[in-house]
Queue: 2 jobs
Job 1
Amino acid sequence: MGIAQDGCWVHLDVGAQALRGELDAIPPRGERVVATLRHLLRVEVDAVFPIVHGTWGEDGTLQGLLEMADLPYVGTGVASSAVCMDKILAKQVLAQAGLSVVDYEIVTGREVQRARDEVLGRLERLGFPCFVKPAIGGSSVGVSKVLDRESMLPALEHGLRFDDRLLVEKGIEGRELECAVLGYGRLQASGVGEIVPGKAFYDYADKYIEDGAQLVHRAELPEGVEARIQELSVAAVEAVGGWGMARVDFLLDEQGLYINEINTLPGFTAISMYPKLWEQAGLRTPELVDRLVEVARKRHADRAGLDAGIKEWIRSLEG
């Protein structure tokens, strides 16, 4: 199934063209989005694999639509998708669960307009370098690495182009590590991979344009560190109420391990870290997809059972 650039769902034939490589993009359709949902509602599927990044894809909105349409879908649910898409909410939930996160401050667009000097003074406690990130977004869009006070205001203004809330994090000069999580009920963690950025940090251009980063599918780590990362990965996904699949990203420096973020819809191409990590664990991509679809259908059946239980309870009250 395909979704056009303006959010309109398209006929299956158009989606098939895109899959065959005949389309570089699905251009805007110019229709009301709600009217195009007929293409989703008419399709007969066993489960939906929502490989749609960013807003309307991994932020809980598409998951909510599929819940209302009573369709099983791969990946985590509405609430955990929304929390993990919001960097501020995710930090707060993880910290509340007692998990280590990088020190941070929250800045709003209104604060920057009304009390600029106060904001800049407050942020100085994080030291330099630090990172400015839009609260909601992915693929490092709008993210800036700030090296000094003079560069902070331009970085804040740049980030506010993408969201009206910003996360400003203390810079950690360390290794970027990733761990894949899979399952439902009992979560499993893969081995640990590493990203070696091709530039100052792993930004949008490094990920999608310049392709300068190196993905190391099995990181060499001191004794006990991999096991600790696996343990923390499962704990982090459980803290946000997740299931199905997720990739948990870490930073490692001399002070210890920090959870950087949870990606509930990780990249799933032939070279992406998530399937590669499971492949190294002995789970080939076709088998991995089978497992994910199986989880989707099991979770959908369990949810239906809960709904039936609620209706039965209401009937017992009325009777």
Job 2
Amino acid sequence: MVFHVITLFPSAFDSYLGESILKRAIEDKKIKVKFYNPRDFTEDKHKRIDRSPYGGGPGMVIQAEPVIRAIQNAKLKIKSKNTKIIWLSPSGKQFTNEYAKKMAGKCSDIIIICGRYEGIDARVKKAFKVEEISVGPFVLTGGELAAEILIDVISRQVEGVLGDFNSLEESRVASSDVYTRPEIFEYKGKKLRVPKILLSGHRAKIDEWKLKHNK
């Protein structure tokens, strides 16, 4: 799985991709993340890519042409036809585990377009077939954080990324409440214990408890 990220701030991904499971997945070549900065595809000598919006309004809008060229450059490096272009938008279709699983099974390459400022000139959506996706009913400062969420959730569905595929919480009986050693400890005079059922070894009852506490 290769993620091609169109972003003005590729360094925003460094810390998240450089740690833990995703770092190992990249090192093991289970996934790959490539970046394309629209500033590198502008004809403006100052590398400017934003202009004031037609029709008025606050803020600046990212120009279509540098973004289109960045996408074209990404597409030139993709050999497979199983490619999806995702346009991150608060008004897009809600991103889910089911969608992530579908993408992991269907696509070899995913192009993710990250917006900034007041957004990207909508004509980009006319130049390419894109799918508008939202990570939630809220507005972020930019699309980079949303892109990291997509990369994380989709990567978990790629075989080998988690090591043990049974680690997928959504595909097994799992509770949002988990416990580990010690069995009992004290805090401010109160003894905090692991639920007895988890110590029983009774698998059916434990699964029943987990289902009950699966929020």
